[in-house]
Amino acid sequence: MPGKIAHENGHLRVPDDPLVAVLYGDGIGPEVVTTALKVVDKAVDRAYGGARRLHWREYSAGAEALRQEGDILPPTTLQAIREYGVALKGPMTTPVGQGYRSANVALRQQLDLYANVRPVRYFPGVPSPLLRPELLDVVIFRENTEDVYAGVEYAAGSKEAVQLIETVRGWGSNVREGSAVGLKPISEFASKRLIRRAIEYSLAKGRRKITLVHKGNIMKFTEGAFRNWGYELARELLGDRLATPEEADADHNPPPGKILVQDKIADAMFQDLIRRPQSHEVIVTTNLNGDYLSDAAAAQVGGLGMAPGANFGDGVAVFEAVHGSAPQYAGQDKVNPTSVILSGAMMLDYFGWPEAARLIENAVEETIMRKIVTYDLAGVMDNATLVSCSGFGKMVEDAMVRG
């Protein structure tokens, strides 16, 4: 019988046959997720010789769930993820400027998945606009419940907007009449729990450079507070192991045995990602900054099709495609499934099954090195062999067998 993941005394306990919720998503979701499941299953079987096995259980969410069940995030889906403790999710469609609220955001809020974690690194052979893309190897921790995700906004000319403008004018702030207005909450509680997770990750993984990214030079009491809370927590958790920028070398490497905690204004961070990516290893930031930075970093190493992601709460994790649902390509078996495949590898690492995770990463790397790629990469590579979404997955499976 399949088992369920449990958390005991703060530790994850994963049976050899865990149940995992699967959300296929919208648009290209079913294609990339189906391909990824086959790759993950092959890696687990190859790594453990049948001693371990994943049991996938499908649940609905997104536009398809809205059509079929009248809810973008049915209660049965939420309950299953809470019960199993883990899910693998495809992309879900979010209307722009109208319609229902994002299913992705609702999922993160309902399950309190406060840490959006996106590793970005270069796979040899992937076309890149950088001269040395291999220098970029960062893990971005993005706050996942506040900022614009918890934003309150009112339409220009609405009664609420007029009242809010009048109120802040009474406090001495000059807001132009007729403006649309919004609030973005950033709390000490949410900021510190994210930063704590990033520091604990750095300690566990041997990463020695942590960068707090903010716009605190302008927004001093929200973005600036995020920075200040980060330094406060770092001093508490790291003590004598905390290194300051003055102690680091030209590439921001701290002295042996220490961890550098530094901060960077958001716009300057974009320049650093291109000019000095080796100066950063773990990036911790607010919601909107993290969204921008993770997409920009992914663009340097092959695009969102190459970028895995995960959302962590206390006792629950959802691994996902970072890219959108691309409905114009749905049903064509065309798009790059690597994002979901690598998110599956992140899930295996989370389980404590690193042997299977490394099989996947090495097989993806080998396949790309052989120039066997989907259309997004084939169009910018010389002498590439173009394969379908499912075809790429099959090539990755074959590479695992050869390995």
Describe the structure.
The chain is an alpha/beta fold. It is built from 13 helices and 17 strands. It has helices at residues 29-48, 63-69, 75-84, 103-110, 159-170, 188-205, 223-238, 266-275, 287-299, 338-351, 354-369, 375-378, 389-402; strands at 6-8, 11-13, 19-23, 55-59, 86-89, 115-121, 137-143, 152-154, 181-183, 209-214, 242-243, 259-265, 282-285, 308-312, 317-321, 372-373, 385-386. Strands 4-3-5-15-14-6-7-13-10-12-11 form an 11-stranded mixed β-sheet, sandwiched between helices. It is globular and about 70 Å long. The model has no long low-confidence stretch (mean pLDDT 94).
Kindly, what is the distance between the CA atoms of the first and last residues, rounded to a whole number of angstroms? 31 Å
Discrete helix count: 13
Strand order of the largest sheet: 4-3-5-15-14-6-7-13-10-12-11
Average pLDDT value? 94
Strand content: 15-25%
The percentage helix is: 40-55%
Shape: globular
Q: Mind summarizing the main beta sheet?
A: 11 strands, mixed
**Low-confidence blocks of residues:** none
The total count of strands amounts to 17
User: How much is the radius of gyration in Å?
Assistant: 22 Å
Give helix and strand order, one letter per element, not per position. EEEHEHHEHEEEHEHEHEEHEHEEHHEHEH
| SSE-based structural type | alpha/beta
